[in-house]
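Subject: mismatched residue count in predicted assembly?

I count 464 residues in my input, but I want to confirm that the predicted structure covers every chain. Input:
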Amino acid sequence: MREGKETALARLISLVERNDPQAPDIMRAIQPLLGNAYTIGITGPPGAGKSSLTNKLTQQLREQGFTVGIIAIDPSSPFTGGAVLGDRVRMEDHYLDPGVFIRSLASRGSHGGLAEATKDAIKILDASGKDFIIVETVGVGQTELDVIQAVDTVAVVLVPEGGDAIQMLKAGLMEIADTFVVNKADRDGAPQIVTSLKSILHLKYSTSGNITRRESATDEIWEVPVCATQGMSGEGVDEMLASINKHRDFITRTGELDRRRRERRREDLMSKLQFLMRDTLQTACADSGDIGEIVERVVTGVDASHSVIKELLPLTLDYMRNQSKNISTGVTS
Amino acid sequence: MTHKIRVLVAKPGLDGHDKGAKVLVNILRDAGMEVIYTGLHQTPEMVSRAAVQEDVDIVGLSYLSGAHVGLTQEVINALNEAGVEHMKVIVGGNIPERDNDELKAMGVAAIFAGGSSYEEIINTFNEMIAA
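Triage response: the counts match. Full output below for your records.
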């Protein structure tokens, strides 16, 4: 992979995606190579133009001599598990460019706008030496915000059809932007949405100080830029990249980048631990008579889940202690 | 977890008719597969590079134009050059029966001419990957 072999890079992502027993070893092996890439998240509603913007952004980065990894996520069907991964279609300009690696991931049951494997795929691309990694989320609504746990700078893409100023006051998606991008800026209503977005942002600065109560390493206010773009022609994308770079400089200077990356690693560990605990508990239910019996009392409605927790916890911990040598964490001592 | 079948569906060459490809994308999705669609007018190198990056199990080439023999050979050459051996190459669309032997000889794993049933396609894909 370090030699730039794409087959190896692609295969590593697949192994991690399917949670292969080799995955922990892979992740451990690349650990010393991490932290050199800068990661950008592109999120927004379906059809806002995220893929086209990713395409043009990549073009600009390539012109400046940077290599780019792209992770494009599309939804899996909750019914069949199938998925159509169609973001590549907009990125055709880069199909043959050796400095660009594009990988599509299906969300596979994750509901936060990313795929479970996204963070590990980012790490693999980082280790492969890419300068920038762009993560394009599934088309999101107001509450699929996992992207903030995965990247350094988040660009929220909106379109003129997205609604009025009331929509912009709402919590969720509107709070996570490090930069706003109003795409399809040639359409009716685009200048108005730019204006109302800016005025809402100023309202926020004068009341809460920041557009969000999101924790920050600094008291200094980051004034979230609003750029108008046309993803098809590339109009305004230079401005979009400039605002991303400006944000990068800001969070680097203030220590916020470091705080975000630390927080991300913590969250990543917690979620992996949570996943493992859940898995272990499920095995325990089938495996241990005592635990299974308590769970059965809740399942049949005899006991409330709240009331058995105290009884269940020590038993589960004992079970885990006994099993810990067999758990396939790859963290063998 | 069971292995998710990943399929690349591509339209190599100059023909601009992708309804067949879109129908295929749709039925494979409904059969629980992850389908990567690359769009129209792909050169063999573009198809091969996308297949490598996406690490797919199956590369499906859809044709209406009549250029399937030459283009398929070029895609297979490009895949071999990239060092990919495990991917199955499938050809579908407007494929006259007289070309079947030639396509199979170059390593095409299955051919679905017009009129192939959805069931036939899905079953073949599933068996191919299970094998």
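The first helix of chain A runs from residue 6 to 17. Marking this ticket as 'not a bug'.
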